[in-house]
Amino acid sequence: MKKNLPGQGLIEYIVLIALISFGVILALNFYGLSVRDVYCNIADKISKGDSCAVTQICQDDFSTDFKGWNTLQGSGGSVQDGQLCPSNYTLALNTCSTSKNLKDYTVKLNDANLKSGDGYGLVFRAENTKNGMTGYVFQYDPGYYPGSFVIRKWANGRELNPPFAVAPAKGYNWYNAPRDIQVVVKGDTFTAYVDGKPVLTAEDSTYTSGGAGVRTWDSTQVCFDQFGIQSAP
Question: CB 3.0–4.6 Å: which of 6, 34, 73, 136 could bond 91 by disulfide?
Fold first, then answer.
């Protein structure tokens, strides 16, 4: 008669549980669900609340002025009809975001309408040091041949070349089309979305926290309707 070795039964149970868990995850993915989705649904029913609700951290609808921003380069911009229209070569950080120790979050620009020029950027995990800004910038960048979505790193007030993530988009309709821009910042992974569709994902672990802002360059004419930061999904 075969005898089980000490601990063999426990190992078999662990393997069995792992296999079951793997099968459950595959099944959830097949139906378009995530483990987090299931957890949130169960937690909400138990707590009768919004256990996984997104929290609004900072927001600016540009209904009055540009006072909630710290302009690091350029002259900032003007507020026109409830929209922020930055001047050329503007780099500005939202003061609400830099006043908090933000790590993982989602930053958004609504109805970003590029009228002319080489592009604009959405800054994240950034801070203003004595030598200038450090952080990252996602760029909506028709000027980066042949027109691309780009993520750059900044250090001591200077952008580092080349960009560490580029997604060429030849033939893309860059101009005179209001876009919703979003970057999900989670751990060392950054995913950029345009109009709800992912366009670029990159990984980097240089900067782990920091606020958000906007950037323009090369005679760009663009206006933004709303800026916001929410807790990461």
Answer: 73
Asked if residue 50 has pLDDT above 80, the reply is no
pTM: 0.79
How many Å separate Cα 98 from the centre of its chain? 15
- Separation of alpha carbons 128 and 193, rounded Å: 25
Question: How would you classify the pairing of strands 148-155 and 132-141?
Answer: antiparallel
Task: Kindly state the tokens that stand for 103.
Answer: 């790590």
The values of phi and psi at residue 61, to 5°, are: -95, 5
**What is the domain class of 56-231 according to CATH?**
mainly beta
pLDDT tens for each residue of 196-229: 999 999 999 999 999 999 999 988 999 999 999 9
Q: What mean pLDDT is predicted for residues 183-204?
A: 98
In whole angstroms, give the CA distance from residue 131 to residue 118. 26
Tokens describing residue 124: 């994240």
Quick check: helix, strand or coil at residue 209? coil
CA dist., res. 207 & res. 25, Å (int): 31
> Which residue blocks in 48-134 are alpha helix, DSSP H?
95-98
